[in-house]
Design brief:
The complex is a heterodimer. Chain A is of the alpha/beta class. Helices cover 26% and strands 33% of the residues of chain A. Chain A has helices at residues 37-52, 69-78, 93-106, 126-134, 189-195, 234-240; strands at residues 2-7, 9-11, 19-20, 25-26, 33-35, 57-64, 82-87, 111-115, 138-148, 153-160, 163-170, 173-177, 200-203, 212-218, 227-228. Chain B is α/β, with parallel strands linked by helices. Chain B contains eight helices and 18 strands. Chain B has a seven-stranded parallel sheet with strand order 7-11-6-1-4-5-12, with helices on both faces. In chain B, α5 (212-220) packs parallel to α8 (299-310). Classes of the chains: A alpha/beta, B alpha/beta. The interface between A and B is large, with 73 and 80 residues.
Chain lengths: 246, 311
Amino acid sequence: MNILICISCVPDTTSKISFKDNDTKFNSEGVQYIVGPYEDYALARAVELKEKDNSIHISVLNVGLKDNDPLLRKALAVGADDAFRINAFPDNSIHVANQIASFIKENSFDLVLMGKESIDFNSAQVHYLTGSILNIPSLSPVTELNLNIKEKTILIKKEIDDGIETLEVVLPAVLGCQEPIAEWKIPNMRGIMNARIKPLKVLEPCDNEVKVNFSKFSVPEKKENIKIIDENNIDELIEELKLKNL
Amino acid sequence: MSVLVFLEFSNDNLKETSKQALTYANSIDDNVYGVSDSDLDDNSMKSLGSFGVSTYLKFSGSFDERNILNCIVTSIKDLKINFLIFPKSNTYLKVSSILSIKLNFSLVTNVVSVPRFKKNIYVKSLIFSGKAESEIEINSDSCIFILNKNIINISSFNKSVLIKEIIDNTNRLYPVKIFSIKKEKIEGDILLNDADIVVSAGRGLKGPENWKMIEELAKELSAATACSKPVSDAGWRPHHEHVGQTGLKISPTIYIAVGISGAIQHLAGINSSKIIVVINNDADAPFFKHADYGIIGDAFDVIPKFINALK
């Protein structure tokens, strides 16, 4: 059973977002990068499954630039077997999905796990796009994942707009993962040492036309001054919010 | 040029986000098609004219995984539709992705402005979980916009709706490989994503037994309830109520935060709310810096007073 985890490398959730070069580029100065929190859940679940059945092979893939290599090493330290990086800047979902799909076509994976969304561009669609390109099912956001290796099926729980659906899916499939699918894993010393000798391969991107570009960035205006209301005068708040006529 | 809007209904009523999408579509072009996978009677279809639908595409089937039909793709091509507008929802994130691949349309998510047409098309989109905005330049004349909630005021229209039936040619895009085992509906009348008002509470409430007053306040306001990550992690509230960086991202008209300090990860889930009210006994809680209204006080005193004032 081969599992592929696609990870995004994104600014830490506490990062202050700012731009440079006349607001045309992200200012990465002083920004700490992390494996996207949702992909961290996906990776953790795959490692849990491997701990139960060592026949599972976990590959991890990132579409991104060289600066991301330490984060791929971290994924190897958590428990992935090998890592791949497609050398392209990942600012367009269709572009990224095409890169991932062409990688999957050339290699063989039973199950592809991603996060529900990357926390930089938040399209929440790379998994659906990849599934559509490959003509295989894509499901998201998945909150529970169990594997039947013999039958090559999975049993998942997935959030839908008005509830939770339990599904059995014949593999291959692409999943967008979300907590509480697993607990995040912190690499231990042995994992970190082993990660140094595990393979990390860099691939060049396949050609595809990008029609959507980020032309200018801005940071939303700060809220104007807050109005403090006395707790004994809640009527004032209700009046301000016009809640009376609900 | 024509526009197709994917609509959503809740108990046969057109959802607010779909009305917003229709107003948005009319700002692009007069000729607006509507489609949904709800089973509507003739009157319901005709009533869509007042929200801006010119032609309703009637088809039987479901946008569900097993049934996203080629007939939608074929109709879009036949009718020369070049803009697809979706209100953001789990289902429509998927439908739009599949259509973008099958039709080779450009795709922009988290759209917060109407498009500007110059040599190329320009539209604004939220990025970095709402911490920033970007102007997107689209070098293509056919695209898909997925709209965030509350980005446009709903206009009323006076159109008479043409109903056009589209035929299911039953060719599935891919074979059935998914089997539904069971569906559990989320309890409560108001879904968090649809709610106009949300009452959210955090660790400041000290324990799950204290959520009664939050539920009561929500009921008085016809609001949905939500919570912060520590609360859902501790199992005090179900996971689907968790709003924040790794939970749900919502943009209600009014967001009321009770006993939540306002960590940056929580703000990422709610920063596109129109009005933010913060109730916290710590005057230094960072959330006050991002709020429109604040009450500095103990939730256990303030919330009962709030409920009483509403009654």
